[in-house]
Amino acid sequence: MPRTGSIAGPVAALINEFSKLPTVGPKTAARLVFYLLNRPRHEAQALAEAILNVKDCVRFCSLCFSLTEADPCDLCTDSGRDAATICVVAEAKDVYAIERTGAFKGRYHVLGGLISPMDGIGPAQLRVKELVERIGRDAPAEIILATNPNAEGEATALYLSRLLQPLGTAVTRLAYGLPIGGDLDYADEITLARAVEGRRSLG
Ligand SMILES: [Zn+2]
Prior knowledge:
This protein is an alpha/beta fold and about 200 residues long.
């Protein structure tokens, strides 16, 4: 609980709740609470209702395991999207990140995490079985492994590529580039190795 001194109980309680959110520290939490105190009641009510609606109305899509109100989700039912390409990601938030780029028009599969032996997470804790079943059912032409370029993401991609390649589906990995404006010197090895692997010919 952040130190809130002699602040009124309800104010301290809300600061405490906000400060549990990712990237929100006690100072930002206090700023949000004092901002809300100055807003009309209906705005606070809309925020509270939106939070509860997320919890009450959003569920996992039974096909891709992304988050959705309707099951199957819009991405799975959109006939304009290429069902022959499945992009495998760790979390539903990664679907939103890739959708924001507008660069991908296929379908997704959300694993629900990454292989992490230190945390006791193996393939059985992830939606790997569901992915294999889906490949058997839909026979996609390509599986894109879009897990993060860190230790867990690389381990998961390596595991999946070995598991899926015998199924006769092309398995590809995202080509991670160097940040624009970045220096080769400052890139970590994984980023640099990925950038080299993902190189393409000029012209
Ligand atoms: Zn879906």
